[in-house]
């Protein structure tokens, strides 16, 4: 069964450095998302991406963050200058359109980002 | 603004018990309601999805119901097993998934 994959599984970086988190969504899905979960807190929506552009973003997703789908298969999240509070598990998801118009999201295993 | 609440926050039961996890949401204008399982330090495994036009979904020992008018969903686990121990998250979908804080379930052998 197709799965969403994410690399790396764990990334350690120093404050102020740029990081790129990578995701390969399920191939026939059209919607792509990033969520994050700070340790002990709820899973939070960051951004959704459809038709090669951002469709929605949260207040968390400020100018530090960007997303790209550079080659039709990968979907990346870039954090330009990491802060300690960016330490979290970052989940990528892809969405399958369901009959009736809603969609089901499939999550990857996550990338644990540690900012020191 | 959609808010999702899950009760109880934690639950410890002996093996074999049937149990119910509760989820409530404040805005009934949702496309669907999805239940996930999360093991410690791991990703999210989708268990069941109920579309807004549906009332319930079943998969094996799991049954999830949805009452949009009252803003509630329940996840029923029959004949619980130690392997069911995990955190269970519900999430309401409008254009994005809004997650609850989860119920931490421990099934004691």
Question: What features would you describe in this structure?
Answer:
The complex is a heterodimer of chains A (116) and B (109). Chain A is an all-beta fold and 116 residues long. Chain A starts with a strand and ends with a strand. Chain A has strands spanning 5-7, 10-13, 19-24, 31-37, 43-50, 53-57, 65-68, 75-79, 88-97, 103-107, 111-115. Chain A is globular. Chain B is 0% helix and 59% strand. Chain B has strands at residues 4-7, 10-14, 19-25, 32-38, 44-51, 56-59, 62-67, 72-77, 86-93, 97-99, 103-108. In chain B, the strands form two sheets. In chain B, strands 2, 4, 5, 9, 10 and 11 form a six-stranded mixed beta sheet that branches. A five-stranded antiparallel beta sheet of chain B has the order 1-3-8-7-6, with no helix packed on it. The radius of gyration of chain B is 13 Å and the shape is globular. The mean pLDDT of chain B is 94.
Class from helix and strand fractions of chain B: mainly beta
End-to-end separation of chain B: 41 Å
Query: How do the helices and strands follow one another from N- to C-terminus of chain B?
Result: EEEEEEEEEEE
Count of helix runs of chain B: 0
- Beta-strand segment tally of chain B: 11
Helix content of chain B: under 10%
Radius of gyration of chain B: 13 Å
Low-confidence stretches of chain A: none
Which pair of protein chains has the largest interface, and what are the residue counts? A-B, 25 and 25 residues
Q: What is the number of helical segments of chain A per DSSP (H or I, 4+ residues)?
A: 0
Instruction: Provide the helix percentage of chain A.
Output: under 10%
Radius of gyration of chain A: 14 Å
Oligomer: heterodimer
Q: What is the N-to-C succession of helices and strands of chain A?
A: EEEEEEEEEEE
- Cα-to-Cα separation, first versus last residue of chain A: 37 Å
List the uncertain runs of chain B.
Answer: none
Q: Output the structural class of chain A.
A: mainly beta
Beta percentage of chain B is over 45%
Q: What integer is the average pLDDT of chain B?
A: 94
The largest pleated sheet of chain A is described as:
7 strands, mixed
């Amino acid at each position: 069964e197709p799965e969403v994959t994410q690399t790396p599984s764990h990334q350690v970086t120093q404050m102020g450095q740029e990081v790129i988190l990578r995701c390969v969504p399920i191939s026939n899905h059209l919607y792509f998302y990033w969520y994050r979960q700070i340790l002990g807190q709820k899973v939070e929506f960051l951004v959704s991406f459809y038709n090669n552009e951002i469709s929605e973003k949260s207040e968390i997703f400020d100018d530090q963050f960007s997303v790209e789908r550079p080659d039709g298969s990968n979907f990346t999240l870039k954090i330009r200058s990491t802060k300690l509070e960016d330490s979290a598990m970052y989940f990528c998801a892809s969405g399958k359109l369901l009959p009736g118009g809603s969609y089901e999201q499939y999550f990857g295993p996550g990338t644990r980002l540690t900012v020191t | 603004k959609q808010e999702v609440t899950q009760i109880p926050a934690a639950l410890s039961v002996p093996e074999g018990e049937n149990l119910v996890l509760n989820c409530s949401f404040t805005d009934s204008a949702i496309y669907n309601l999805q239940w996930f399982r999360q093991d410690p330090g791991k990703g999210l495994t989708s268990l069941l999805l109920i579309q807004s036009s549906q009332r319930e979904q079943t998969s094996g020992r799991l049954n999830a119901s949805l009452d949009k008018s009252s803003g509630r969903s329940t996840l029923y686990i029959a004949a619980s097993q130690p392997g069911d121990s995990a955190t269970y998250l519900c999430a309401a979908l409008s254009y994005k998934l809004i997650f609850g804080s989860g119920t931490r379930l421990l099934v004691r052998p």
